[in-house]
Design a protein that fits this description.
The chain is an alpha/beta fold and 148 residues long. It has one domain: Ribose 5-phosphate Isomerase B, Chain: A, CATH 3.40.1400.10. Helices cover 49% and strands 15% of the residues. The chain contains six helices and five strands; from the N terminus they run E-H-E-H-E-H-E-H-E-H-H. It has a five-stranded parallel β-sheet with strand order 2-1-3-5-4, with helices on both faces. Helix 2 crosses helix 3 and helix 4 runs parallel beside helix 5. The longest helix has 16 residues. The mean pLDDT is 97.
Amino acid sequence: MIAIGSDHGGYQLKEEIKKYFKEKQIPYRDLGCMNEERVDYPNIAKEVAKQVQSKECEQGILICRSGLGMAICANKFRGIRCTPCHNEYTAKYSKLHNNSNILALGADDITVNEAICIIRMWLATEYEGGRHEERLKIIEKIEDENMK
């Protein structure tokens, strides 16, 4: 299950991604927003991050105009590794090396087709583990020290 959410700036792209998910029978949960009326992106990022953090959803996708604010907010949650990706390369390595569990997209920076390619790459890439596992353990230790 993928938790997906956007603010008003990412709403149209989110709706196109949902069409792709339906076509490919990829299960998702839409956590907002539900139209193009102004909404504060941190509230959407919080809901998606909570769903992934609690493991109610395996992964998440957040969309705003740049993807950056969503990523900043989602990364405030222990265990969340939200990565803004602008192409297939960054999507691949966000998962391969960093075991990203939330993908952040910038609706102003990419087309619908580019977004679908990024998502396909991100979903298809498996975490490599190995030497990267030690780095994720360091990140977890930093979380333990600083997220009280």
